[in-house]
Amino acid sequence: MQHFFLEPDQIKDGVVTFPEGISRQIKSVLRLNLKTDAVIVLDNSGWEYLVQLTGSKGKNVLGEITGKQPGRAEPSVGLRLCYSLTKRDKIEMILQKTTEIGVTRFQPYFSSRSLVQDIRNNSARQERLNAIIREAAEQSMRSKLPVLEPACEFEAMLAEAEACPVKLIAWEGTAIVSQVCAEMLNIGAEGKQEIALLIGPEGGFSSEEVKQAEAHGFRQISLGTYILRMETACIAGCAIIRHLCW
Fold first, then answer.
1. Average of pLDDT values for 213-233?
2. With a threshold of 0.90, does the pTM exceed it?
3. Which domain holds residue 157?
């Protein structure tokens, strides 16, 4: 059954009004029957609603809520992925695949070797990235959307991550014996339950940046014997952590 994240104001008094973009998807792409088909609607609170489609009004598809239940459980430990600004296609892949894996927060940044150094916000671009996250969350049947933070400088990113009890930086200069393991992810029963994973740009981190991260509490880790591309490292690192810690 198809899943759709909607804004809370689009779910009122048992009636669901699908926005124009999703309405076009329902009618033209998925070709759902507006009188007989049902879908799952989520409001990003952890609940999911069974919605019977009832027709349309103007450009908006309408539906009626027929049931409500808790959505699939989100991870008990948050996973913050800190990734370098880079080319558009790589960022889109990172957001899509790691949303499916279980990242709960994205923190883009730029460092000395990042391909993109411009952190100015572009509303259309931000909307596109949030749509990719939303569609990946719908496809993987998540009950809450990961948060995409505004891009920032390297130092600001390190400072923002200080609240995470476990902070890991993947660096090709780290000894292979320091591969990420379950013992590294033991964050205890108290405090903010979140792990920060820091992945470098295509050119890697400078040794000074690694020292800077360590000064903020980051621990060096290796992701294995081979040198991974940036986007591969993001996906592999998140998959390993989610395998070890949910």
1. 94
2. yes
3. 78-244
